[in-house]
Specification:
Elements (H helix, E strand, L loop, with lengths): L2 E7 L1 H4 L7 H11 L3 E8 L3 H13 L4 E5 L10 H9 L3 E3 L1 H16 L10 H4 L3 E3 L3 E3 L8 E6 L2 E6 L3 H9 L3 H8 L3 E9 L4 H15 L3 E6 L9 E9 L2 H21 L4 E5 L1
Parallel strand pairs: 1-2, 1-3, 3-8
Antiparallel strand pairs: 4-5, 6-7, 7-8, 9-11, 9-12, 10-11
Helix pairs in contact: 3-4, 9-10
């Protein structure tokens, strides 16, 4: 299973000025592709702090390291410099990246979005990448995403603007992700049970989880207390084929049904 770490960068997130929806959005997509998000961290716009997180992930042999934010033209956009520092790669003017940035600003100028297409030092900054890195097209913004393979890890740097991040993920990044994840499949089953007390479900979930933890994951989702509350139990699994995952999920679901029956708890509904 592909192990993933997400590093979201930006003072604006940590001071509460911007809500970090990116980590949630991309975690769901990574899980849906069969990946395992081992860790997600928020980091300030600090070169050494960003580099430290990247170094740590590489040392732990994380398969896919995703950074979010810090690819723009301003002085506090330092993600690529941090990647270079963490991987001992020099920063270099990348011809492909510079060409992309230039083309984007020519388009923006033609549409009246910016006054000039001049390649200023701030704009050129977005075309300076760590050595051996490859730019990835940004269909919306000016700064390309970046991919760099180091030892056992692949680092993918994405912009922090949600519209840009999503468009890159859904279009130019897909072929790259498919080579990383292969044919992994993730499936989730949602079981609504007629029980309003998670503490009653806890020993049942524990028993089922311990019997199937090598193949599936099971967890109850708490809600507020109330006489009419029904709790959700989520059973999920990842594997190399749909048939394999469905087989494992059905075994776990069957045991859950049996244990709930013994406890006198009925099931309201089951859905994917």
């Amino acid at each position: 299973m592909t192990q993933i770490e997400i590093i979201t960068i930006g003072n604006e997130v940590l001071i509460g000025d911007v809500l970090d929806t990116n980590t949630n959005w991309i975690s769901k997509r990574m899980t849906g592709m069969g990946g395992l998000v081992k860790r997600a961290v928020l980091v300030r716009d600090n070169l050494n702090a960003i580099a430290k997180e990247i170094e740590s992930a590489i040392e732990q042999k994380i398969d896919l390291i995703i950074t979010i934010g810090g690819l723009g033209p301003t002085i506090d956009d330092m993600t690529l410099e941090a990647v270079a520092q963490a991987t001992n790669h020099s920063l270099e003017l990348n011809a492909e990246a510079i060409s992309f940035v230039k083309t984007r600003y020519e388009y923006f100028a033609s549409q009246g979005y910016v006054d000039s297409s001049e390649m200023t030092p701030a704009r050129k900054k977005m075309g300076i990448l760590p050595r051996d890195a490859t730019p990835i097209e940004n269909p919306v913004g000016a700064a390309p995403a970046v991919i760099l393979k180091v030892q056992n890890s692949t680092i993918i740097c994405l912009p922090g603007v949600p519209t840009e991040l999503k468009k890159i993920f859904e279009e130019p990044l897909q072929p790259i992700l498919k080579t990383i994840f292969g044919n992994s499949v993730f499936i989730e089953i949602i079981v609504i049970v007629n029980c309003n007390d998670e503490s009653i479900l806890a020993p049942i979930i524990k028993k089922v989880f311990e019997n199937h933890q090598d193949k599936t994951y099971i967890k109850s989702r708490p809600k507020i207390f109330g006489s009419d509350v029904k709790l959700r139990v989520i059973i999920s699994g990842t594997g190399n084929s749909k048939e394999e995952v469905e087989h494992n999920l059905n075994r776990t679901l069957q045991e859950l049904k049996e244990e709930l029956l013994l406890a006198g708890i009925s099931i309201d509904s089951i859905s994917n």
